[in-house]
Amino acid sequence: MNSLDERVYEVVKAIPRGKATTYKAIAELLGVSPRAVARALKRNPRPIEVPCHRVIMSDRSLGGYAFGGPEVKRMLLLSEGVRFDEEGKVLEEFIVRDLRSIDKNLWVTSHNM
To answer: 99-112 pLDDT, tens per residue?
Structure first.
């Protein structure tokens, strides 16, 4: 595991239950590519502590989930109260696009790690 992975995990741990964010939002906060975020989450050794199921694609679709596929990801989000439209995409009201809105320290933390 590298320091980027740990930075990604710290951000993901801040996503509140019942909300989701995008690979892109995390990438922009950390100054990396969305693919780098996805690779870090695929290596997540602590999927309960680091709730990577709360990270989705920018178009609101689920994307992958290394711990059982998109259907398991969907089930986990539903169990937290996240709702979907008729196309299976997360409703916008459940998405946090500006991660600093959940924790003002995320920006500082992400740049000091």
So the answer is: 988 876 665 545 55
